[in-house]
Amino acid sequence: MSTIIDTFIAPPCHDDIEIIEQDEHLILINKPSGLLSLSGKNPQNLDSVHYRLVQLFPECTLIHRLDFGTSGVMVVARNKAINAELCRQFSQRTVTKAYSALLCGHVENDHGVIDAPIAKDPALFPRMSICVTHGKPARSYYQVIERFYRELDDGRKLPLTRVKFIPETGRTHQLRIHSQLFGHPILGCDLYGGLLLADIEPAPRLMLHASELNFIHPITGKSIHAHSKSPF
Questions:
Q1: Is the pLDDT of residue 172 over 50?
Q2: In a 3-state reduction of DSSP, which class is residue 90?
Q3: Are the CB atoms for 175 and 186 separated by under 8 Å?
Q4: How confident is the model at residue 90 (pLDDT cuts 50, 70, 90)?
Q5: pLDDT single digits (tens) 45-89
Q6: What is the per-residue DSSP string for 127-164?
Q7: Are 50 and 35 in contact (CB under 8 A)?
Q8: From CA 192, how far away is CA 178, in angstroms rounded?
Q9: Half-sphere exposure of 69 (CA within 13 A, CB side)
Q10: CA-to-CA separations, 116 to 17, 82, 158, 190, in angstroms, rounded
Q11: I need a surface site. Which of 17, 74, 132, 156 has the fewest CB within 10 A?
């Protein structure tokens, strides 16, 4: 078995975590891009969503994660009982999520489904891979919001497509690798082909934002619809 060696050191993140809403049971936050969800094993990767929040809410635990470069809505439990109930909702796929993304190129169809199983491969770490044999089922719906061109400093026009993603499953790097698979990687993605041409200045961040999160409040039973406007 291959041994995974993680050499990634996160650069400092100077952006604050925005608390969208909170009560005695849970916290809804807007995570900035460039911040880990959980602290890494390397002491240089201590800063994270969880590390910052436990300073204010000592018993809090994360229900789910967003990639380092992804920004947007997360729900955080304030105790173990709430954690268990929210984890149950995630595992039963009653939680719905939506993401905003900028994809390289112009997507041909106005909407569609990407259905391709995803597997871990220590030899490719930190990348994931599409694997029909060993991969776990992964399904992503997309809807085109707009197709446009971004003019570069030298006058060239860069074709981009803004899409809304609704993932049916929640595999690691799912939207990033699915975007690459159908030929339109997410702009700014360093792992799955979104850095474009060598002579183009790279995007300032991964252009992926968790814009919506819908679930049932474990205590009140009310439907929670959390929104965060895309920063790009």
A1: yes
A2: helix
A3: yes
A4: very high
A5: 999 999 999 999 999 999 999 999 999 999 999 999 999 999 999
A6: -EEE-TTTPBP-EEEEEEEEEEEEE-TTS-EEEEEEEE
A7: no
A8: 9
A9: 20
A10: 33, 32, 28, 21
A11: 132
Q: What is the residue whose two structure tokens read 């993680």?
A: 6
User: What pLDDT shows up at residue 201?
Assistant: 75
Cβ neighbors of 88 (< 8 A, separation 6 or more) are: none
Q: Letter for the amino acid at 70? A: T
Residue 120 Cα to chain centre, angstroms: 17
pTM above 0.90, yes or no: yes
Assigned token pair, 217: 């409040």
Of 6, 15, 67, 154, the active-site residue reads 67
CA distances from 10 to 3, 5, 16 (A): 21, 15, 16
Is 6 considered catalytic here? Answer: no
Contacts of 147 (CB under 8 A, 6+ apart): 106, 107, 159, 160, 161, 162
Tell me which amino acid residue 30 is.
N
Vertex 77: Cα angle to 75 and 80 (nearest 5): 150
d(CA 143, CA 209): 15
Rounded to 10 degrees, the C-alpha dihedral 181/182/183/186 comes to -70
